[in-house]
Amino acid sequence: MSWLHTFLNYIGLSILRLFAFLPYAWTVQIGYALGYLFGRLPHQRKYVVLRNLQLCFPNLTSHQIQRLANEHWRLLGRAVIERSRVWLGSAKQIFSLVDIESEIPLGDNKPRILVIPHFVGFECGFMALSALGEKNGWQRGAGLYQNMKNPFFNQKIIEWRNRFGAKSINRQNRLFDLIREIRKGNFVVIAPDIDLGPKDSAFVPFFGIQTNTITAISRLAKACGAS
Q1: Is 73 a domain residue?
Q2: CA–CA distance, 6 with 10 (Å, rounded to integer)
């Protein structure tokens, strides 16, 4: 890694730390502003969002589609900035962002697989569960991750995610670790849209569109005795 990359990495880390400890109302507005600006720049993801909305909501006008897209970018910008608080802030700061209600006793140490939609708040929810588990002495949580291109932040984010006792499992080649975590009675968080390869995926209707999802969850639950 060159000195320039190292310098830029530490600049980025400093910015994250700044966002983590700014007043929350400020970070929300900064996130909204950044999301608004990003949604107006020409990039591939912008057109992917518009196309997905057009396919899912064919009865909406182009103006209504654009309004939904704008709101998506605003909320995504907020979620990205909030991650600084989630990754670097205290458990108290995380609990101020998330309310957790459950119809099952999360602390009974039974193996559970939590299937969570890959919404913009996914990271915050997982971190809140991990912090709550450490606070109450529950079995630890585990989640899958994909390596980032930046090795500096890849390692940092793994450390931040695991700081309340959770375990981050590389989804490329560590699925046996996932099975072991479930069998130990730890709760495991999986997003249904992750790519586990053709053997563990299928295309099913979603808003009337054939969409990729994973089929391994039911087999994992059966093999591990998880609910």
Answers
A1: yes
A2: 6
DSSP string for 147-212: --S-HHHHHHHHHHHTTTS-EEEETTT-HHHHHHHHHTT-EEEE-TT----GGGEEEEEETTEEEE
Q: Is 120 a residue whose pLDDT tops 80?
A: no
| Last residue within a domain, chosen from 65, 89, 113 | 89
* Euclidean distance between CA atoms 103 and 110, whole angstroms: 14
**Domains: count for the chain:** 2
The pLDDT value given to residue 160: 93
CA 29 to chain CA centroid, Å, is 21
- Cα–Cα distance between 211 and 215 in angstroms, integer? 12
SS3 104: coil
Rg (CA), the chain: 19
- Which phi and psi (to 5°) does residue 4 adopt? -65, -45
- Asked whether the beta carbons of 35 and 46 are under 8 A apart, the reply is no
**Residues 6+ away with beta carbon under 8 Å from 48:** none
Residue 94 lies in a domain: no
Specify whether 41 is located in the same domain as 78: yes
- Whether residues 5 and 31 share a domain: the answer is yes
Residue-range definition of the domain harbouring residue 63? 1-89
Q: What is the pLDDT of residues 61-102, one digit of tens each?
A: 999 999 999 999 999 999 989 999 999 999 999 998 888 887
